[in-house]
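Dear colleague,

Thank you for sharing your sequence with our group. We've completed the structure prediction you requested, and as agreed, I am returning the results in plain text so they can be pasted directly into your records. Please verify that the sequence below matches your submission; if there's any discrepancy, let me know and we will rerun it promptly.
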Amino acid sequence: MGPMKIGVLGLGFMGSTHLQALEGIPGAQLAAVMDADERRLSGDLSGIQGNLGGPGRALDFSGVARYSTVDAILADPQVEAVDICLPTHFHAPVAIQALRAGKHVLVEKPMALDGASADAMCEEAAKNGRILMVAQVLRFMAPYRELARLVKSGEIGTVRWAMFRRRTAVPTWGPWEFDKTKSGGGIFDLLIHDVDIALHLFGEPRAISATGHEDMPNGIDIITAELEFAACSATITGGWHHKGEYPFSMEYTVIADGGVVEFSSDGRPPALYRADGTKQELDNSGPDGYQAEIAYFVECCRKGEQPVLCPAAESARAVKTGLRMLEAREKRTAARA
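Please find the predicted structure tokens below.
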């Protein structure tokens, strides 16, 4: 069996990140790229900068098919799977179009901006017998992978309380980011990661309350949401702050009967502080999260198996929970008015 031939749609920050991750995956071959920007399509990604990692760089696309439209890349019979890194409002319609074209689909988060679209994506994958996976990269990053191992194995006992925090300056990749109908704002663009992890660990929330503030013209979209689960509560907090130099950060604290698991990107590697007073540093090694998620997607495609480590149905549930969080924040805001 030869390498899986993949087409990458969208050569912005996430597309550039995925392209660099693809270079280190033996079972994958970049077969095609798609972008409406001719400079990017030439391989010049040097102007790209995101909230993680360094700037983009020049890539050699000389042996790769290059397309300027979605229709054109999906019509390429050499492309077996697509990696959709387009602006958020294109995720659902392009994924559905790709599935109908017989392609396996990896699509960047958020999966969609409404629950019906997310469900339609799952239904289309099943109807066409294709693999569908959402790039919820935290599931493949060591600090969150270790947290999931400790919680799901029962090693730290019952979880009683959790906090997930993620903040960044508002992305300025395009004007669509400031349009909530296209980006979903900070909750869908950023905190969907933490929503996904919370649901992965604790199941379906029984109740949700939230406070926060939204000022989309200025890029402000912040929330503190309390999610009540069967055995614990979880706080998900953060979002988009003012554009410019405000730094990106992510962290979590999870308190269980057996101790506290904690991590912060601001210099605190993942560790377990056991109830007996001892500290155990957790495994923070392994491949880059983006490389690991794409490699897993490729493996699922080659085996014809849906991704049990990151099921599309769970990504759809994260979309619906994100909407519940926004509704709860709006309700609280209206009550204060």
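Summary note from our side: The first strand starts at residue 4 and ends at 9.

Kind regards,
the structure core
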